[in-house]
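Dear colleague,

Thank you for sharing your sequence with our group. We've completed the structure prediction you requested, and as agreed, I am returning the results in plain text so they can be pasted directly into your records. Please verify that the sequence below matches your submission; if there's any discrepancy, let me know and we will rerun it promptly.
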Amino acid sequence: MGTNPSDVPLTPGTNHLGPFLLTHLLLEDLKKTGKETGDSRIVMVSSSLHDVNERMNRGSSVLDLENFFLDKEGTYSGQQAYKNSKVAMVMSTYSLAQQLEGTGVSVTCMNPGFIPTTDLSRHASSVARFMLRYLMAPMFKLAKISRTVDHGSKMIVDLSISEKYKGVSGKYFDDFEEKESSEESRDEDLQKRLYELSARYCCLDGYEALTAPAPPPPEEKPVKSPKAKTPKKKSKEEKEEKEAKETTENDQSQGKGGPDVEGIKFVDEEDKPEEEKPEDRDGEPAKVTVTVEDTSKGEDTGNQGNDGKKKNEGKTEEIMEKGKAIEQEETKVEVAAQ
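Please find the predicted structure tokens below.
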């Protein structure tokens, strides 16, 4: 339900209260023209849908002035709002005609007919617009129910300037013929009450101003509880990466963190080259050479488990002992050379 800054819903504001206010703002000038020429006219544009018994108004109800803007919870519908605004136009016609009798100002009301080319359903759903434009409009045209823009506008122009309607006031016209409006619209008590209510909403002089009620808050949509997320299927690459990571962690926990010392092979004593004696060299200290051959083939070629650990520890001790022996030999050679 759209509203303007004064909280007046757009449908009754545009179709009834706006024209009602404009008419009264121009009323003194209209009376002056009526007095001078004897012919000043006001033409209200209504609709056949002002009648609650119209077949296209199924589900609508009579105008309730206690709920004029349909602001009570659960009562608003676009169809009902449109119907109320159009019946209000007809009733205002009858009220003004009585008040302006003898002033030279006449007031009439008319139904221009169903004109689908005016894009009247622009705010309807896409399905409703499609049905109206491509299905209902051609059918109504064949049945001579719909009207053209030229036809509807000619009725307004004729009521405004044609000599045929000079002095005609307080009448309702449909398809260039005077007709009886709905029973609801002819209720004089309802006409008076509606006129007073409209004057108050429009803040006319002599009437206590009335503020339109604030529109009801929009209905809150139920919040859906978040669904439990379904775990995504892991890709093949992620699985392989995880397996490789787990294998590495297991290897580290089992002592496979580096190259196995068992893969290092030392040359036996009999395979070593014969050491040169100090006296065989001219003034140079003798040197001891140790050849080391690395036969390891990667970072992860060691034995697994506790057996691997024991072998590594034993080999490490052997290396340390041989290192000490080499240091002692070098020391002896240096002393002898001196």
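Summary note from our side: Confidence is low (pLDDT under 50) at residues 256-267, 278-283, 292-303.

Kind regards,
the structure core
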